[in-house]
Amino acid sequence: MPRTPGLSARWKFTLSYAAIVVVAGAVLIAVAWWYLLRYLPDNDQGLLFTSPNRYLLSRIFGRAAAIAMVFLVAFGLLGGWLLAGRMLSPLDKIADAARLAAQGSLAHRIRLPGKADEFRELSDVFDDMLAKLESHVAEQRRFAANASHELRTPLAISQSLLDLARQDPSRVDAELLDRLHTASRRAIDLTEALLLLSRGDRRLFDRLPVDLSLVAEEAAETLLPLAERRSITLEVTGGTATTNGSAELLLRMVTNLVQNAIVHNLPAGGTVTVHVEPQHQACVVRVENTGRVLPPDLVPTLTEPFQRGSERVRSDDHAGVGLGLAIVHSIVRAHDGALDIAPRQEGGLRVTIRLPGR
Predict the structure, then answer these.
(1) Which of 312, 321, 323, 264 is nearest to 288 (CA)?
(2) Closest to 30 measured CA to CA, from 65, 71, 67
(3) Element (H or E) spanning 220, and its range?
(4) CA end-to-end span of the chain
């Protein structure tokens, strides 16, 4: 934003300090003049040391007062300039860090030494902002690279199949069409997942009352055929728990959790439990499943986009696009909630979501 040139903060501080010093000195001189000279006789006769009078004393006092005022002006300007430079030096460091950040360098930190004050608090807040911004930018870069890589695979497969069909139309059969449909379906699913993830991050939805118990029942009813095909017992327990949010996004959140719990489970005979309850002015949704024992270092990476983990990769038609838990995490954050993922000792995961109660 273009601005007209003006005095720097240092000059404003200097002039303000000098003005305060001069005004304070003038008040002291006026008070001394008033109380010292008002009680002396006003005549020009007599000696000062034998018969003090206002005339002689005012001539001496006036000259000294003028010299003092000149000294106060000089002292105010010099002292204000030095003091302003010392007091505003942290702002110069903060401004330099802001310029570096504007140029794209987010690794720089101010780290002002010394005890806590307003400038150091501002410096610490700015450092925290830079750290979070650097982490967010790095995450977005990884996300863009992974999204490009994930999209390139189905598109490259589709391109190869179409080239094959153009070169030899007689080889167009049901198998080729099925492979082309699968590749296209995967690209569409990935695109829809990316759009949903973006929508959750931007919080573009209306907040209305939503009963999470009904959402859990709807998600379980939708995925019951998948659970039955895999011989997995799916159960919904708990009671009414109402929060404010988007019914569509919350349904997608629970559906993703239940689908992950079904897909990443035992080959047969596994269980999935969805429990909903109000708790301390909050709504709790807990999804537990059986499965393999997961290493602790794998769990924190499950909410990152396209991070599937070698132990959780599936080769069937429900392999997914690697955005299931990332979408869940995005929706939970958009609803001002908290997501906790913990491995169960006997195998599988326990995912707990806490959302604000209505």
Answers:
(1) 264
(2) 65
(3) helix 212-229
(4) 43
Distance of CA 153 to the CA centre of its chain: 32
Cβ proximity of 161 and 181 under 8 Å? no
The pLDDT score that the predictor gives to residue 310 is 43
Work out the percent of the chain whose per-residue pLDDT is above 70. 81
Closest CA to 60 of 50, 49, 70: 49
Backbone angles phi, psi at 43, to 5 degrees: -150, 165
- Write the DSSP symbol of residue 169: G
Spatial separation of the C-alpha atoms in residues 356 and 358, rounded to whole Å? 7
pLDDT in tens, 25-76: 888 888 877 776 666 666 655 544 555 666 666 677 777 888 888 888 888 8
Q: What is the pTM of this model?
A: 0.57
Which amino acid is present at 204? Answer: L
CA angle 223, 229, 231 (to 5 degrees): 100
